[in-house]
Amino acid sequence: MAATRIVLAAIAGAHGIRGEVRVKLFTGTPDSLARHARFDAGGRALVVQAIRPDKPGMAVARFEGISDRNAAEALRGLELAVPRSELPPLAEGEYYVADYIGMAVVDETGEPFGRVKAIENYGASDILDIARDGGGSVMVPFVADVVREEPGCLVIDRVWLA
User: Fold this and answer.
1) pTM of the model
2) Is domain 100-161 classified as CATH 1.20.1290.10?
3) 81, 11 contact by CB (below 8 A)
4) Mean pLDDT estimate for the chain
5) Are 1 and 36 in contact (CB under 8 A)?
């Protein structure tokens, strides 16, 4: 269930008075954002003039046609997305989080359990946050010993889903 559009960042608000914006990164570094010349921002094309690092997890960007604080502030909350086809190929063991969000989760017998709602990382490994079909959620380590990927779903032993 690969996403066709990948969100790389979101505009947090204006930065200064000359039309720059602060951007919250959903990528590792501003470089991965800077490789793209154009973003889809809620159906509006934003063309990059410049991107530079800011605080960790943030960047400052300037887009064509955005020249003052009011215009920059009007962009607050917009997500910056690119087509999936524009992303670099993945190395062995890497994945794009967006490819798993919404994916079905079943137990080892094939019984439906829920859907992936997020992937978190608190330091040790990635963790799947799974919304249960019956309500509530459960978190499981996103590692090969626990999660097996099959076409269209993730299979997780019921012991991890308790």
Assistant:
1) 0.72
2) no
3) no
4) 92
5) no
